[in-house]
Amino acid sequence: MESIRIAEDLEKHFPDSILEIQVHRGQFSAIVAQEFILEMCQFLKEKHKMNHLNCLTGVDNLTRKGKHFERFEVIYQLYSIEHRVGLRLKAQVKDSDNPCIDSITSLWTGADWLEREAFDLLGISFNNHPNLKRVLTPDDWEGHPLQKTYKLKGNTEWSGFTDLKEKFKQLSQFDFQNTHVQEGTQAND
Amino acid sequence: MTETTTLSVPVTQGDEDKYKLRMGPQHPATHGVLRVDLELDGETILDCYPQVGYLHRGFEKLAENRTYAQNLVLTDRLDYMAAMANNVGYCEAVEKLLDINVSERAKFLRVMVCEMARLTSHLLWLATHALDIGAMTVFLYAFRERETLMELFAELCGSRLTNTYTRLGGVRQDVTHEIMMKLDRFVNEFPACIAEYETLIDTNRIWLKRTVGIAPVSAEMGLDLCLTGASLRGSGVDYDVRKHMPYAAYDQLDFEVPLGETGDIYARYRIRMEEMLQSNIILRQCIEKMPPGSIVGDDAPDLIMPTIPQKKVTPDTSAHQGLIKLIDDRNVYMEGDVYVATEVPKGELGFYFVSDSKGKPYRMHIRSPSFIHIGALQTLGKGVMVADLIAIIGTLDVVLGECDR
After folding, report:
1. Which of B88, B281, B333, B341 has the smallest count of CB within 10 Å of its CB?
2. Which CATH architecture has domain A3-139?
3. Distance CA B106, CA B297 (A)
4. B241: CATH
5. pLDDT score, position B328
6. Per residue in B250-298, pLDDT tens?
7. Listed residue (B380, B362, B375) closest to B404, CA to CA
8. Chain B closest CA to A3's CA: distance in Å?
9. When comparing pLDDT for B151 and B326, which is higher?
10. pLDDT value of residue B324
11. Is residue B48, in this structure, part of any structural domain at all?
12. Which residues on A lie below 8 Å from B341 (Cβ)?
């Protein structure tokens, strides 16, 4: 079955959730509402054997115009290894101040880190995620770097850096080199 | 008497029996700056938390502020063991997004460098994986062949690691007759080298004890953990992007995808050895079938830097605008998004692009196999011995440059 047939079948089962079906350079994607994203992924995984999750990521649509676009969207690129066909779901996350969407870690354990990455870099929260913490940036990092409001260049320093320098001072109290020399001289005596 | 100072290490109430060990980030067997926080009972791992980000350079944010042509150099720094394969992956994705045609000769050249990169990466993997488990000699043997390939890369494009060989619409330099002769000699000799590695480890009792039956991954589990590449094929799932979504000239070439059954470390080792033989077969076909012609497509964007006049123009900005303008004239930018995957030595490398019809990508997401494989370590590392964790990190074939981006 081709991508377009699968997208139509999805629309038949979730008529209110599918906002639009797009095609660009031969790749099909469905813009969907966020409510039934877990059910939709489960439907595609079970009925259409889309058992491989290629890619899960988020996009910040702040400066991009589109008919159905909300501030944040989450992209699910699914692929069926058996039928050799793929489909992309673009879930629109409604709340722009506190974006939140259902986690699909119950379907793919591998989505765990991908969702953590989307949380870390874009600030999208995932409901029912087992361990939603930052992954690429330090735990006490301020802001989410891939949001369009986050500047590329700045003059502030990461707050954890001062702690790091403190720790280094604490470590330097141990005079490792001298201890070594003293032990050596004792052994010679 | 001198006063002794100690670092205070807090121990959580109720956790006194667990031994906490922080492996890395400067551990030689973690292949870069990977830190794994372990909770141990004796030598058995109860919980395993991989921590990454030490090499995070923010490529995705950087890419949004650079033109498509400028972003190419960033991809060298992803998987620095196989920079050629990343270059090809990036260019294939941008060409799909901007609808640029690639010349026939460039397609074959891309396949050629991709497979050479696969060999260098797999040879390095074999060398370090064997070293981690305790076989030193393989390291020296594998680096001998890798050196030949690295010198061919240097002769082809001037650098050994960060190649930046491809261009939008083709490749940067054409191959010379000498390079093809050298590659031909290498292709003839290489199968004997693989046989040589196999005599060293294939029936080695220590190697078998450390690999057979360790960390088995079933096909369902592999798909659940989103594994790709040799790690998934070791479990018997027939998924190779070169066959499923052929790019460059892979649809014109004849090769097989080796599959394993057991999904343990030994199965994945066999897969990669077979893959090296298949790469050799592909290289042989590339040499024989290499079509004549231009190395850049006819409608490839003209990315020659505009000459900067001697007046007071800051070179930076004029070059930026020039690059954007040249492409804008041809009106190749359209709003839309594409996801293009390529099979790099580590697994499936995907680029997800969102274009808002401007000269720079609106969003570029890199689906890196290493990131997902390290995520899977959390599941695979539970209940094994500490020594086996080293073998598991080795068999997943991760590189932290690609993981952290």
Report:
1. B281
2. 2-Layer Sandwich (3.30)
3. 8
4. 1.10.645.10
5. 46
6. 988 989 999 988 888 999 999 999 999 999 999 999 999 888 888 877 7
7. B375
8. 14
9. B151
10. 47
11. no
12. 54
